[in-house]
Design brief:
The complex is a heterodimer of chains A (about 110) and B (about 110). Chain A is mostly beta strands and about 110 residues long. In chain A, about 0% of the residues lie in helices and about 55% in strands. Chain A has no helices and 11 strands. Chain B has about 110 residues and is an all-beta fold. Chain B is built from no helices and 11 strands. In chain B, the strands form 2 sheets. In chain B, strands 2, 4, 5, 6, 9, 10 and 11 form a 7-stranded mixed sheet that branches. A 4-stranded antiparallel sheet of chain B has the order 1-3-8-7, with no helix packed on it. Chain B is globular. The chains are: A mainly beta (about 110), B mainly beta (about 110). Chains A and B meet through strand 5 of A and strand 5 and strand 10 of B.
C-alpha cells in the first residue's frame, strides 16, 4: 500500500513567520499536486510538480519536488492570515491514481 | 466556465435510511471522482467514473455506489446509513488521467 506522510498535521503561527510543510513517501510518483482547502469549500489546486528537483514559486509559496520524486515540500514566506487553510498533497502513481496525504491544517494569527 | 456543482449542500438523515448525492462536472470533463472527507481519516477515495464506466474503486463497503450519466453528471448513493457515514462528500472532475482535479464544495451529510 502506497502512503504519503504529510507533516506537521497542525501548525499555528503568527503573521510574518515562515513555515514548511512536508510530504514524504517510500514510493516514486510521476508527479505531485498541492491543494489548499478553505472551510466550507472543496480543495483547490495550487501547483503540480513533475520533474525531480523541480522548484515552483507561487508568490510567497515555494514548492519543491525531491530529486527521487518521493517527497515534496511547501514553504511559505512571511505567512499572512489569508494563507490559513488545509493544505493537501497528492502523489500521482504509475497507474495515474492519486495518493493523498492526511493534510496540514494551517492557522495564521494576525 | 461554471465549476463543479454538488447538491444538496447539507443533508441530515437517520440511521438505516439511504441517500443520493448529485454532482455536475465542469463542461467537457468526462471523469468524475467521489471522495469522503472526515477529520480523522482525511480524504478517502470512493470511486471514479469515466464515460459512464467505473474506472477505479476505493476500499469502501458495497453500501456505497455510484453511477455516471451520458452527460457526465454523476450520482452517489449510500444505503443503510450508519453514524460513521457522517462526513463531507466531495466530487471532483477532470478532463483525463493526466489532469488535476477540480472539486465541488461538497455535500455535508449528517447521520443521526
Amino acid at each position: 500500500t502506497q502512503l504519503l506522510e504529510q507533516s506537521p498535521q497542525f501548525l499555528s503561527i503568527q503573521e510574518g513567520e515562515n513555515l514548511t510543510v512536508y510530504c514524504n513517501s517510500s514510493s516514486v510518483f510521476s508527479s505531485l499536486q498541492w491543494y489548499r482547502q478553505e472551510p466550507g469549500e472543496g480543495p483547490v489546486l495550487l501547483v503540480t510538480v513533475v520533474t525531480g528537483g523541480e522548484v515552483k514559486k507561487l508568490k510567497r509559496l515555494t514548492f519543491q519536488f525531491g530529486d527521487a520524486r518521493k517527497d515534496s515540500s511547501l514553504h511559505i514566506t512571511a505567512a499572512q492570515p489569508g494563507d490559513t487553510g488545509l493544505y493537501l498533497c497528492a502523489g500521482v502513481d504509475s497507474n495515474y491514481q492519486l495518493i493523498w496525504g492526511a493534510g496540514t491544517k494551517l492557522i495564521i494569527k494576525p | 466556465k461554471a465549476g463543479v456543482t454538488q447538491t444538496p449542500r447539507y443533508l441530515i438523515k437517520t440511521r438505516g435510511q439511504q441517500v443520493t448525492l448529485s454532482c455536475s462536472p465542469i463542461s467537457g470533463h468526462r471523469s468524475v471522482s467521489w471522495y469522503q472527507q472526515t477529520p480523522g481519516q482525511g480524504l478517502q477515495f470512493l470511486f471514479e467514473y469515466f464515460s459512464e464506466t467505473q474506472r477505479n474503486k476505493g476500499n469502501f463497503p458495497g453500501r456505497f455506489s455510484g453511477r455516471q450519466f451520458s452527460n457526465s453528471r454523476s450520482e452517489m448513493n449510500v444505503s443503510t446509513l450508519e453514524l460513521g457515514d457522517s462526513a463531507l462528500y466531495l466530487c471532483a472532475s477532470r478532463t483525463g488521467s493526466f489532469s488535476p482535479l477540480h472539486f465541488g464544495n461538497g455535500t455535508r451529510l449528517t447521520v443521526t
